[in-house]
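## tool: complex_structure
## caller: assistant
## args:
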Amino acid sequence: MTIGEPGDAVETDLSALRVHDATPESVERIRARCLAVLAARRRADEARRERLAPWRAWIEPALALGLGALYLAEALTRAFAVYR
Amino acid sequence: MERDLEVRLVARLKAGDPAAFEAIYAAYRPRLFGFLVRLSRRRDVAEDLLEETWLRLVTHGATLSDDARVGPWLFTVARNLYFSWCRSRAVDATRSSDLAPSWPAPERGDSPFEAVARAELERRVEAALARLPLRDRELLLLVGVEGLNPSEAAAVCGVPAVTLRARLHRAREKLAAEMNRDRALPRAKAG
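## result:
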């Protein structure tokens, strides 16, 4: 993105600014802290999934069965209503 | 950063992928640092705020929307952290410190003459930017230096895009005036 006509004085002036970076020690410290936070988050997610796994093992089939039964009952009710 | 790549990286970051973090960190760290150090005029403050910005990304990464623009998001957080820092220390953010950050020496490869000329121009631009009001400086940094488009910069600054364009126009004029004044000074001294 340019902020004026290419080659204008302000463009030229701003393009003289170099990209700078934090000190290597800071760069490494920030990276290490962030990766540690990400790792902790992943571990917490996995622990939560493991805690929920036994529940999901029977809740999901039961839910699917229940909804399927409701759907079937409704379909049969409507079919009988047509023939009655 | 290309949009497709950015979307993929955000999705992976939300899942906690360290490689996605590394890619975003490498792409945006120097730009964020440059933005913060030119706002605050202090390397130590810029490094602290840089660290806090990245920690916010990994802490809140899971809540990013799928189509989030990670660059403007990072600049928004960095800018807000800077203004919070100013408020917490009762720093008048509209007045910049005279303390210029100490930059490393120019890159090797330039001839001595080119290196001196480049360093001198850079010094003058840094000084002119530092004399501008903070609101003007941040716009020039976001759009002119960091390459955000006006809509993205408007989102970062929390103003409508139309307002930002008008402010940007005025900021350009002020920087040009400062540079012209700076150019005129040596001639006046010589005369």
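## assistant note: The two ends of chain B are 49 Å apart (CA to CA). Chain B has a mean pLDDT of 86. Handing back to user.
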